[in-house]
Design brief:
Pfam families: GerE, Response_reg. The protein is α/β, with parallel strands linked by helices and 226 residues long. 49% of the residues lie in helices and 13% in strands. Helix 4 crosses helix 6. It starts with a strand and ends with a helix.
Length: 226
């Protein structure tokens, strides 16, 4: 089955271009386009796509508010079969701004990519997010999460007890996730099978009540693990 995608951007030429580039991939099917955040939410509700590629600055409802609505209107424990259950958001923007990225992550986005990324990087990002993983543009990953988490730690005390439910091995794995390592790289680092690492990551997310790896990275920085 192809990965179903909705593209949301207020600039028609940009929106059409992104849709055309994604649709050209044999495993990606663009099922709708939205000119603002409100339209994106309604299309997500009606089409239940795997991924919404979301711009940040849009009229009527901006991309961050739309992301928050989409990620909270289905798929959680209280509403596993809600109208947007399983839909993930990939934020695609021109603006490499710390607060935009952090707000996107806080709103539940599973990925953040800049519009100057190569076409294949965009297609790969859609695949990664659709597969339940998370992705951040390399230019913002460590700088952004480190800086913002540092500022937040200045306001709150680190909470080591936040990790009490994790086993020592799970803490080791989470620390490597927070460094931005893939499952394969973690497996090499900790001398584990890649499938074992994947199992550990799944248990970590479940125990901590996190949506994906990106939230795990933010959580780790906020709580002083790295």
């Amino acid at each position: 089955m192809p990965i179903t995608v909705i593209v949301a951007d207020d600039q028609a030429m940009v929106r059409d271009g992104i849709a055309t580039l994604l649709d050209a991939a044999p495993d990606i099917d663009v099922v709708g386009q939205a000119a603002n955040g409100h339209e994106a939410v309604e299309l997500a509700r009606s089409h239940r796509p795997a991924v919404v590629v979301m711009d940040v600055r849009m009229p009527v409802l901006d991309g961050l508010a739309a992301t928050r609505q989409i990620t909270t209107m289905g798929g959680g424990a209280d509403d596993p079969d809600g109208p947007a259950a399983g839909t993930r958001v990939l934020v695609l923007t021109t603006f490499d701004l710390d607060e935009y990225v952090y707000e996107a992550l806080g709103a539940g986005a599973s990925g953040f990519l800049l519009k100057d990324a190569p076409v294949e990087d965009l297609r790969s990002a859609v695949r990664v997010v659709a597969d339940g993983d998370a992705l951040l543009a390399p230019s913002v990953t460590k700088r952004l999460i480190g800086d913002i988490a540092k500022r937040r730690r200045e306001k709150i005390h680190a909470r080591p007890e936040a990790f009490d439910d994790l086993t020592p091995r799970e803490v080791d794995v989470l620390r490597q996730v927070a460094r931005g390592l893939s499952n394969g790289e973690i497996a090499q680092e900790l001398f584990l099978a890649e499938q074992t690492v994947k199992t550990h990551v799944g248990r970590i997310l479940m125990k901590l009540g996190l949506r994906d790896r990106t939230q795990a990275v933010v959580f780790s920085y906020e709580n002083g693990l790295v």
